Amino acid sequence: MTTRRSFIKWSALSAAMVSVRNSSAKKFSIPSSVTKPIVISTWKHGQDANVDAWKILSAGGRALDAVEKGVMVTEADLRNLSVGLGGLPDRDGHVTLDACIMDEWANCGSVAFLEHIKHPISIARLVMEKTPHVMLVGEGALKFALDHGFSKEKFDRTPESDKAWKEWLKKAEYKPIVNFENHDTIGMVAMDVNGNLSGACTTSGMAYKLHGRVGDSPIIGAGLYVDNEVGAATATGTGEEVIRICGTHLVVELMRQGKSPENACREAVERIVKKQPEKSKNLQVGFLALNKNGEYGAYCLQTGFNYAVYSNEIKNEMIDGKSFYK
Ligand code: SD4
Q1: Where is pLDDT greater, at 94 or 33?
Q2: Nearest to 63 by CA among 12, 21, 101
Q3: Which of 90, 136, 247, 280 has the most CB within a 10 Å radius?
Q4: Residue from 308, 117, 81, 77 nearest 204 by CA
């Protein structure tokens, strides 16, 4: 059995290993014609998030800081019904949040099924930086956040999400809506001036899900994956389908094989269709990817998925993702 003392010893050892690994590691090779810095993020709300990320990137800051600060904009917006505490609740009325973050060293942190915390992405980062673990959930994640000085927001739902939930309760049917009001989970990936990649993903998950349900967004390799040698990818849509194919890990591995970001995302979407052709007709999944050259692309199941790109050349423009079903 692990005693508290051996756990602490082990934690200290892990922390030491992380710092040795980081300080003695070789520099990754960076091609010369790279578009950097650059940040891309899912859906229309990605534009506001990109603005804060860009402030950090354009000042020479680290991609990890940029993606955290970027998605915090979306988390803080209580009008947003799919990210942060303004999100639609589960069927029992609880707003439960999922988030993860990953850096250029494959350090990663995640929280799931977390309630009452305004910035789950910052708790995910703390899990990454202050613990030997990758993922904390539920009560344990909340306790960890409070122990680290975060405060518990008092309200259960915003007036808007409360109204929507009470309306939903009349029929109580679980039918995820494709392209919910054209905004959804925020996934963001970025490359900084040093050519290093990081990503963040945060959501309130599928509206009216079963209490305790966790989607793809906090799962490394599903909702988000970063490999600093190759590229980074994030996902949005019905998380169960993304988890089934380890979606973003697949996209990054396809880019490793030489596929462009768009083609890698397309092949991942096709994998979903191939596994469950009938089901795939009635749900949305979108992948968004960036490679080490600063090339980016997306692909989704249904029309309607778009993303925001901010670089020196493209000043925070929305781009439509191509879709499998027209
Ligand atoms: C989830 N992928 O919880 C998230 C939700 C989402 O479009 O992105 N919806 O499954």
Answers
A1: 94
A2: 101
A3: 247
A4: 81
Give the binding-site residues of ligand 1, using a 6 Å CB cut-off.
184-185, 203, 205-206, 215-217, 236-239
Average per-residue pLDDT for the chain = 90
The residues that are catalytic are: 185
* Residues contacting 163, CB < 8 A, separation 6+: none
Query: What CA–CA distance (Å, rounded) separates 194 from 208?
Result: 42
> What average pLDDT does range 157-174 have in this prediction?
94
**pLDDT for the residue numbered 176:** 74
- State in Å: Cα 116 to ligand 1 middle: 19
Tell me which of 217, 220, 242 to substitute to probe ligand 1's pocket, judged by most ligand atoms within 8 Å of the beta carbon: 217
The atom of ligand 1 lying closest to the CA of 214 is 3
- Which run of H or E residues covers position 125? helix 120-130
Rounded to the nearest whole angstrom, what is the distance from the C-alpha of residue 31 to the centroid of ligand 1? 34
CA–centroid distance, 88 to ligand 1, in Å, is 12
| Beta pairing, strands 224-227 & 108-114 | unpaired
Q: What domains can be seen in the chain, in order of their start residue?
A: 32-323 (3.60.20.30)
pLDDT band per the 50, 70, 90 thresholds, residue 173: confident
Taking 50 as the threshold, does the pLDDT of residue 182 lie above it? no
Q: 81: Cβ–Cβ under 8 A, 6 or more apart, which residues?
A: 87, 88, 160, 161, 164, 180, 181, 183, 204, 207
pLDDT of residue 161: 96
- Alpha helix segments (H runs only) across 148-282: 159-169, 239-244, 247-256, 261-275, 277-280
Q: Which of 203, 234, 245, 302 is the pocket-test mutation for ligand 1 (most atoms within 8 Å of CB)?
A: 203
Q: What is the pTM of this model?
A: 0.90
Per-residue pLDDT at 35 = 86
**242 CA distance to ligand 1 middle (Å):** 9
Amino acid at 264: A
